[in-house]
Amino acid sequence: MKSKKALFRALCVITALAPAAPAALLTDSFESPGPGNLPAGWRAGFHGNVSASVVRDASVARSGNASVCFANRSPLAANVWVSLTRETPVPVAGLDALTLSLHARGVAAGRAFVSVVFQPSGGETRLYLPEGDFPWRRVAQDIPVPDGAASVILRIGSEAPSTALHLDDLSLEPCPRKLSGLPALFLPRQPAADGSVRLFPSAPPPDPDLTVLDIARLDQDEQLLATTLQGLVNTTRPRLYLVHNPNDRFWLARLLGQKHIRSASELPSLAAAVEKFRGEIAGVTVPDPAVPATRHTAMLLGALDATVATSRQAAARYNLPVKTDLAGRFSKNVQAYRHLWENHRGRLASHVLAVHHPAMTHNGPRDYLAQQRVFTFWISSYADPHPAADPAAEMEFAAEVLAATPPNIPVMGWFSFGDTQGLPEYDAVRLVSGYAKFLAGSEFNTNLSLLSGIRVPAKTFRQRRQPAPPAPDTPAVLLSFSVMDSGDSLWYWQHYQHKHWLDPERGSVPVNWSMNPTRPPHLPTRAPRVF
Fold it and tell me: Cα separation of 369 and 376, whole Å?
């Protein structure tokens, strides 16, 4: 009896010492009816002549007796949507972060979101909801509270056709995890091959005689093999250049014309490239097609053990031995990311991260990510239907990685894919900025494992002196044209902006072009073309 009493007292002490769960700032199961067949405390908004409805539905509920139901008959278009906004702001002053959660059920549900709008500081975070047909499912996200925010407005929006999207059990709570004010981790940057310290890690100077391979018509497994092979052989001395699209041939011609290289010999096939570099390939790491994140894992494990990444079928086709097969080792993307991070972090780059949709068909950046051993991950949205996606776990893991790496480093790539997969742009920028990092759009870059090794004199990056403008007539209206969009993206200047520069009308009207200051050292052959 005494022992039972002692155990009871011990349990009481433990219970008393355990931190109390944070009190919810808001819980709403839409039980109370309000005017217009809406839940009490909410108002509907119909924007852009949308054909839609939003009602309190007493026939469907996850808990209690009612839920909210959206039905939308309008096609997806700008500023055409239906909304449900909570009329009373929720106080959040003094909080570090919030946890937003709710349950959703869909029948042919289209694009929809829940947003948290901060006041008076401004700023909005959107949580995109699942799409298609699905049973009741919990969706949640931790949201940092910006400085100066005193309250938030909650808004639910439907932007695309939906037969029925039911929502229930909405809650907003203080986040139990600390997302700001974390201690910064300072590590010395590793110098480049020439002894300089750079914001982005760079390749060694390239071999003067390059090998060229056109991979534009290869299938996805072969492109993955080719780009990871490029990262492998370019690690010690860059000498393999891949042609993904016609722009790559243009930049190759400039390398020759500017005498950065002496020659470029093109191979007829991927088989020829494998044979040429076979002595440097230790084998193949095979990703699991059921878990897209293993493409990243296979890429980086290959960078660590001199293997290339591709399927078993492609390995057999090119007579390459399989060293590691990731099939069946993970069921979720986040498990593959965590395995790599927890077991190999010390051998990965310390001052750069990358985010890249694991199922993205463009493999252009993989040569550089493999060469520099850049830890690469992704955060799925709830609109991503893949069974390996786990948005809440991926966001929590990403926060761990961002907190455990130094400040003032780039996160390469892009957080969004398509309309609703990944994070919206501003949410992504807010996320990495909260950890003192910046986002460098590079998801379509190519051949960085070679181009970043080109050295261009600093005097190259000087604006040409412009003639004095003519004296205007009086009175006069002066116009300035500036192109600001996408100037912060590395890939934009290598590829998409290139077509603007080739426009024969360019120069007929003075135009200002924005340019990210990190771009010249990372794409040194591109910058002289615009100076």
Answer: 8
For a pLDDT cut of 70, what percent of the chain falls above it? 85
Report d(CA 286, CA 325) in Å as an integer: 5
In contact, 299 and 306? CB cutoff 8 Å: no
406, 186 contact by CB (below 8 A): yes
Q: Is 220 helix (H, G, I), strand (E, B) or coil?
A: helix
Instruction: Tell me phi and psi for residue 527, to 5 degrees.
Output: -60, -45
Ranked by mean pLDDT, which of 11-15, 248-252, 334-338 comes out on top? 334-338
Per-residue pLDDT, 186: 67
Among 130-134, 190-194, 238-242, name the one with the lowest average pLDDT.
190-194
CB atoms within 10 A of CB 243: 18
pLDDT at 476 > cutoff 90:
no
Position with higher pLDDT, 144 vs 388 = 388
Report how far residue 484's alpha carbon sits from residue 463's, in angstroms, rounded to the nearest whole number.
18
Judge whether 286 and 315 are in contact, CB under 8 Å: yes
- pLDDT score of 18 more than 60: no
Distance, CA of 525 to CA of 148 (rounded, Å): 43
Distance CA 433, CA 431 (A): 6
Asked whether the beta carbons of 375 and 340 are under 8 A apart, the reply is yes
**Pair of tokens at residue 174:** 């203080």
- Mean pLDDT across 494-515: 75
Pairing mode, strands 283-286 and 322-325: parallel
Q: What angle do CA 79, 84, 86 make, to 5 degrees?
A: 125
The 10s digit of each residue's pLDDT in 413-434 is 999 887 778 988 888 888 898 8
Mapping DSSP onto H, E and C, the string for 473-519 reads CCCCCCCCCEECCCCCCHHHHHCHHHHHHCCCCCCCCCCEECCCCCH
Q: Max CA-CA distance within the chain?
A: 102
Which of these, 438, 445, 423, 430, lies nearest to 351 by C-alpha position?
438
Is the Cβ–Cβ distance between 144 and 38 less than 8 Å?
no
Instruction: Confirm if 89 and 104 have CB atoms less than 8 A apart.
Output: no
Tokens of 470: 């003519």
pLDDT 10s digits, 313-369: 999 999 999 999 999 999 999 999 999 999 999 999 999 999 999 988 889 899 999
Is residue 520 packed enough to be buried (19+ CB in 10 Å), middle (13-18) or exposed (0-12)? buried
- What is d(CA 322, CA 275) in angstroms, rounded to the nearest whole number? 16
Distance CA(290)–CA(332), nearest Å, equals: 9
Alpha-carbon Rg for the chain, nearest whole angstrom, is 27
Q: Helices H, strands E: what count in the chain?
A: 15, 26
Distance between CA atoms of 230 and 51, rounded to whole angstroms?
A: 52
pTM value is 0.84
* 166 bridge partner residues: 69, 105
